[in-house]
Specification:
This protein is an alpha+beta fold. The chain is about 45% helix and about 10% strand. The strands form five sheets. Strands 3-4-5 form a three-stranded antiparallel sheet, covered by helices on one side. A hairpin with a 3-residue loop joins strand 4 and strand 5. The longest helix is centred in the first third of the chain and has 32 residues. The protein is globular, with a radius of gyration of 26 Å. The termini are far apart.
Amino acid sequence: MTSSEAFREVNASLDTLADNDAVDAAVAASEGIARLEAVRLRALGRLSRHRDGLSSVVQEVAFALSVVDGHAAGLVSTAQALTNRLPHTLGLLDAGKVGGYGAMKVATATAWLSDEDARAVDAVLEDRIPDRNSDQIRKAANHAAMMADRDGASRRAERNRGGRRLSIRQGDTGVASIEVEDGPVEKVAAAYTRIDREARALRADGETRTLDQLRADVALDLLLGGQGGKSERSEVFLYMDLNTYLGLNDDPAEMAGHGHIPASLAREIAGGSNTVLRRIITDPLSGQVLDLGRDRYRPTAGLDEFVRVRDRECRRPGCHRVAQACDLDHSLPWQHGGHTADTELIDLCRRDHRLKDEPGWNYRMTSDGTLTITTPTGQSYDSSPPALHEPRSEEPPPF
């Protein structure tokens, strides 16, 4: 019997289980997943040691496992910690007593400790975290780490506050989230109090939006330079077929950095009072950008703007930083014969721009715009500029 056949047989048998047996099956599956996580983390730890912890390991793991960069970074750092200085936690993972997410909490809580203190905390936690949920593990690990180095607690707080950053997370269709991570607690609390106060004032004045909606709207308006409670102007790149704009079809549009949005929402955004429309000429057969119309309310930046409009986002597969925030780079380095032309220029975010110059990474672009990235382990990944529309016949559509 093949493994696929065995899985199908097991899944079919689950329909006959009583409730208690179903819970037992779920527990057994979770324990098995934890053991496989241990295998994966050991493998990633081995890769990191072999490559001397190069930052490019994170990008290679993101490619190979098809995960976002932040998750790949968490996997690599957890693998390094577990295989170098948290042997007891790794043993609990082997035994299925702690899941991969819980092990990651231990690695994060002890990351600031010396190797000696981390190993001591790891030994203490061996009896405290088995069969606990991730939040219980986080609290136990943080407490044990603080007790192991009380003098370092204040330095840790300062270091954490120094790591403050702003992040964006793309959500389901038409929504996204913005977060100030690791901000000073007193400023975060004060900011929330102000937002909440203004939201409640608007609510008291007869606003029909919920308090949650008002808090979100006030926060965004304040970030965009307003006083809260009213719409503010912002700039985004929205790609929409003319027929969609005119209401002749309902093909989804695309917003750079976010992804596809429904035609109705795209038309609503495009119909805003401050919206600037720009004509983009495409190849009807491939949908690729050929040229930009020159009529717009700001002057064109020529080649730079063309490449950014064409690429939309960073060209490394899996990276969605919008092209406006990226560097323009030669796929073939200038010093190696590259040319400053649209056939060789690509958008790369600053991190991926630096990654391109690390040993073992190779970037090549073909005449049709396909970028092939080869990693130090010899794996290749392709990236093509997204077409603005599906390929069409050469005959114009009827009107």
